[in-house]
Predict the 3D structure of the following.
Amino acid sequence: MKKLLITIVVLVVASLIAPKFIGNLVETEYQSVLEKIAENPSITINSSTYTQGWFNGKVTTDMTILLHDDEVDDIKLIVEDHLSFGPVIFTDSGIKFALSYSQAEINFKELLLDEEIADFVKDKVHFTGLLTFSKDVVTTIVIDEISEEVDGNKVTSAKAVGEFVLENNNRIYGEFNWDGLTAITSEDSFSVGKTSFSLDQTLVLGDYYQGTAISTGDFNLAISSININDAMGNEVLLLKQLAIGAIASVDNELMKMSINYGAEEVKSAGQHLKNANIDVVLGSIDINVMQEINTLFASISTNEAEMFNEQNMEKISPLVTKLLARDPILKIKDLSVDTPEGKIQSAMQMTIDKDAFDVNNVMSIMAAVKANAKGEAPLPFFTKLGLAPMIDMYVEQGLLLKKEQELSFKASFAQGQLQINGNVIPL
């Protein structure tokens, strides 16, 4: 009994003393993260203060997100992190065992956004963070349920919750789930069904904080439905089971990315289509050059005219040359959709001849492109749309091949010359 009492006393004393030392450790971790973020060319840390008590603390960070666009002002905000120190932390969501738990408050210094949007972010969007004993960061995002009615227009949005983990500064994984929204106006109604997003990415090069990360792994976005009806209740657009997925892998410093876009059902303009699908593959992408490109574009204007000015093109052209040295390839493995009359499908493969690219003339890349494509489609689909005369004209010109009720084509592009079904097409 005496030993048990001594053990309890030791634990209680340790629990009272530990937060003070943990607070010092947390300050070191925050300072390390801010130093990394400050190296990101798109973020400026104007100031940061760390106030430490015995059991809690506060970090106030004044930062500017640089948009590199003369037409849009940079985003200036103050982030206040209210900290509770471990090892045992009592929170609204239960007891946590960790180094620290934070609740963030975001305040915009200048209302670059609509005031209602700024208030929404402040009042309805909640960020919390958990710094674990292994120094992983668990971030939780909660967006409250919203129901607003203004001038007869009503919007209802379900609660959304996301949790993401930054593990050992080289892996991010987690998911975000939202039950969707409905919006009703005098002109139409709009709804988004259940939505989920997940990712699991492992760093292979660069840094997450500095915006230079090259990662492998996957991400997936799924939306159960998007529906738009007019004021009379007539269906304007219906999309069911939308999905976007991607997976990336690296071998011998070359990345392969497979990206898929799909929709189980599409209804619009009197058309009812199913199984719309796009499969895209990018291969032989040099990850070291990708990182250089990421770093460059993070530091230049997003304005298209300025982005591709003479000064920037002098920096971009050598990177294009380095990227082409590893013979990258683009494939559209499948671009298809099922119609009531039959399946429309096509595919394409594109490479770039590095020997035909002139580093002093970035537009020479057009002449360096090599591509092959093919496609098939049912003629009755186009006849139903009243496009039969146009199809007949294309068939007569040799741009389409017709065999009974099926249309097809084969195309190639090389050395700046386009051929369709063996016919040279002037450009």
